[in-house]
Specification:
Blueprint lengths: L1 E2 L2 E5 L1 E6 L12 H10 L2 E6 L10 H18 L2 E4 L15 H6 L3 H6 L6 E2 L8 H14 L2 E4 L4 H15 L2 E4 L5 H12 L4 E5 L1 H5 L3 H6 L12 H13 L4 E2 L8 H4 L16 H10 L6 H16 L8 E11 L18 E11 L2 E5 L3
Parallel strand pairs: 3-4, 4-5, 6-7, 7-8, 8-9, 9-10
Antiparallel strand pairs: 1-2, 2-11, 11-12, 12-13
Helix pairs in contact: 1-2, 6-7, 7-10
Length: 362
């Protein structure tokens, strides 16, 4: 639909963000992250549990939910928490998923579940016995198991086996390698209940960016080769990769300073995701706008059981070229490999639940 020369599309849903609060407010707060999400065209985001303390009990979950509701009152974005798998993400004792799922959160109101998934994000739960129990509990509750699969291909093989064995819906986070795409394609063909995501930086960049831009292009998993990038695009086009998530991971300047080896992993992504993906995938001739919107809005919502919302939408300027400028970001983070990149696809307005959450100054 075109509105005043702008294209109207469903507001986006991001299955993978780090808002850092509690514990790391110097990197990002839930409020600043929500503002960035609104500016990026998102109506809902799934916040990963690697905060301090981790989101591993109902008390911390409700604190995050309160901060999310307060941020939502100001910016409209729904901040939906993901539960940790183990207490303190220490890999030893499982979180009480029943209590997390029963919590009266905004996520519960929207999806019927107190959390939108369970993940040990930032690391992989290596203990096979514990991981199988996580999958069994998640399957019983109907929760998605979101796995930061590192090492990637090896862990994906394990996760596919667990999905088949337990019936859990396993979602592989930030897929970056051609071999991983092949494994997931084969698993889906065999009927395994597996979904996956990739991120804008993996479809737009290769490891050359790390050599050129240093810590602004350092993340985990790292950028890979051109053949991996093209395999990801193929996977997006043929349905192997279900959605695009940002892995928005802001850091303060000091954490990205100094040598590349010492710098923290992670870049910001909420405010650059649509223009980068539109420019690379749609303007690049790989897919249509409708197909990109499905990857960024419709399909991620389906994965976590978030109902469609006709009164949540974005207005997009698809014709005007501009350069990404990190100095205009609403996130606290400034680390991005896309600073200065010429793109098309500016988010002009984000409306969430019928309320304007963001209007571009341009």
């Amino acid at each position: 639909m075109t509105v005043g020369g702008l294209v109207r599309a469903p507001a986006f849903v991001d299955l993978h963000v780090h808002f850092r609060e509690p514990g790391f407010a110097e990197k990002e707060t839930i409020a600043s992250g929500a503002r960035a999400a609104a500016a990026g065209g998102y109506r809902a985001v799934c916040m990963m549990p690697n905060t301090r303390p981790a989101i591993d009990c109902a008390e911390t979950l409700m604190t995050v939910d309160r901060l999310g509701r307060e941020a939502g009152e100001a910016g409209g974005v729904h901040v939906l928490a993901v539960s940790a798998m183990t207490i303190g993400q220490a890999g030893l004792e499982l979180v009480d998923l029943d209590a997390m799922d029963a919590a009266e959160t905004r996520c519960k109101e929207l999806t019927g579940h107190g959390v939108c998934g369970v993940s040990e994000d930032g690391k992989t739960l290596a203990d096979l016995v514990l991981m199988e129990e996580v999958c069994l509990r998640a399957a019983r509750l109907g929760l998605v198991v979101m796995d930061h699969a590192e090492p990637e291909a090896e862990t994906i093989r394990r996760d596919v086996w667990l999905a088949r064995r337990t019936g859990a819906r396993v979602h592989i986070q930030h897929v970056s390698l051609a071999e991983s795409v092949r494994l997931i394609r084969d698993a889906k063909a065999a009927g395994a209940p597996v979904t996956c995501e990739t991120a804008p930086h993996y479809i737009a960049l290769t490891s050359a960016a790390l050599r050129e831009q240093g810590a602004d292009a350092k993340m985990n998993p790292p950028l890979a080769a051109e053949r991996d990038r093209m395999a990801l695009i193929e996977g997006l086009c043929d349905g192997t990769i279900d959605c695009i998530a940002t892995d928005h991971a802001p850091h303060e300047a000091a954490a990205k300073a100094g040598s590349v080896d010492a710098a923290a992993n992670g870049i910001v992504g909420l405010e650059t995701a649509f223009p980068v993906c539109y420019t690379v995938l749609v303007k690049g001739g790989y897919m249509t706008l409708d197909e990109l919107v499905r990857l960024m809005a419709t399909r991620p919502a389906e994965i976590i059981g978030l109902p469609p919302a006709d009164d949540s939408y974005v207005l997009l300027d698809l014709s005007t070229s501009y350069e990404i400028d990190r100095n205009t970001f609403r996130t606290k983070g400034r680390s991005t490999p896309f600073h200065g990149m010429p793109v098309c696809g500016r988010v002009m307005q984000t409306v969430i639940d019928g309320r304007s959450a963001y209007v571009s100054a341009k």
